[in-house]
Each structure stands twice: as structure tokens, then as C-alpha cells.
Design brief:
Elements: E1 8-11, E2 14-17, H1 22-29, H2 34-43, H3 47-54, H4 63-85, H5 90-96, E3 106-107, H6 109-123, H7 128-133, H8 136-154, E4 165-166
Parallel strand pairs: 3-4
Antiparallel strand pairs: 1-2
């Protein structure tokens, strides 16, 4: 799992970083249809869905016009951003597709994101602000590292128990 990989787009000659923090993930999950619908909308080149993703990261004006002008070029980055907000490493998914799907426990994305918040604020002792600013990948790896540390100190059986994969 990659940590906070930069997702960059260019709008009107300006580079904009899309940081897939838990804060943004929770906001996108709350939209009607959640991540699943958002990915469908991006597949249909929806301007409103694209603007909804970009707007919190862009300080310039005329965001709709800027996104419209760049839409075909930025769609792959927007899709990568949504997957990262969901805590999904697209490269890992492609590599593991079909392996062990029947054994994998799943849960709704909203529950998965709430669990990540609990890991950050509860297990890791981060403030709500620190937790919301972290990416799902950062929270997951910090949680796994914390469990590994507890096992090293207190002994223990199996390797880190990863948070459950989310349903689409």
C-alpha cells in the first residue's frame, strides 16, 4: 500500500494536488450513491461529479470551467483519487483480482471509513483533525504498525489484523 501518493492534475496551467484524506472520503461517501455512484458518474464524464472532487482542493476561480476544459485529461487522476479515498490501492486490486474473493469479509464504505476514524483517534491517539487529514492508507498502515508494536512488546499470535475491505 502506497502512502499519500501524489495525485496531481493541471487546471488552466496550474498544478493542483488532490489529497485523498479521510475528511474528503467521508464527504464523498455521503453523496447519494456513495463511491459506487461517484465512479459511475466519472465513467460517464460527469462534470458535476468531477467538480465535486476538485473543488475542495482548488483555490482558483471558475472551477467548473477549468474542470470542463481539462476533463478528459484529468479523469484517470480523479478515478485514482476516489479509489484512494476509499482506501483501495488500484495497483494491488489489479494484481489480486479474483484471488480469495469468496473468503474476504466486506462492509459498507461508510462503516469502513468510520472504522478508520476509530483507529486513528482511538488506537493511535491522534486528534480528530490529524485523523481526518490522514489518508485511509496512512491510517491503515499506522494501525497495523501499532498492532505490530503491541505484539512485539506483549507477544502475540497472528500478524496484524487488517481492517475489513469495503463493499462497493
Amino acid at each position: 500500500m502506497k502512502l499519500a501518493e501524489e495525485i496531481l492534475i493541471t487546471l488552466a496551467g496550474e498544478t493542483v494536488e488532490l489529497r485523498p484524506s479521510l475528511r474528503h472520503a467521508l464527504r464523498l461517501e455521503r453523496r447519494e450513491g456513495g463511491f459506487r455512484q461517484l465512479l459511475i458518474d466519472l465513467g460517464e464524464q460527469s462534470l458535476s461529479a468531477s467538480v465535486e472532487i476538485v473543488e475542495p482542493h482548488y483555490d482558483g476561480d471558475l472551477v467548473e470551467h477549468r474542470v470542463f476544459d481539462a476533463l478528459p485529461a484529468i479523469l484517470p487522476a480523479l478515478t485514482a483519487y476516489v479509489l484512494a479515498c476509499a482506501g483501495i490501492d488500484a495497483g494491488k486490486v489489479r494484481a489480486e483480482r479474483g484471488e480469495g474473493d469468496a473468503k474476504r469479509e466486506t462492509q459498507p464504505f461508510g462503516d469502513h471509513l468510520a472504522a478508520l476514524y476509530k483507529f486513528g483517534t482511538g488506537w493511535m491517539g491522534w486528534t480528530p483533525e490529524e485523523t481526518l487529514d490522514a489518508t485511509p492508507a496512512e491510517i491503515t498502515l499506522a494501525y497495523e504498525g501499532h498492532l505490530d508494536m503491541l505484539r512485539a512488546i506483549h507477544g502475540g499470535g497472528e500478524k496484524s489484523s487488517k481492517p475489513k475491505a469495503a463493499d462497493s
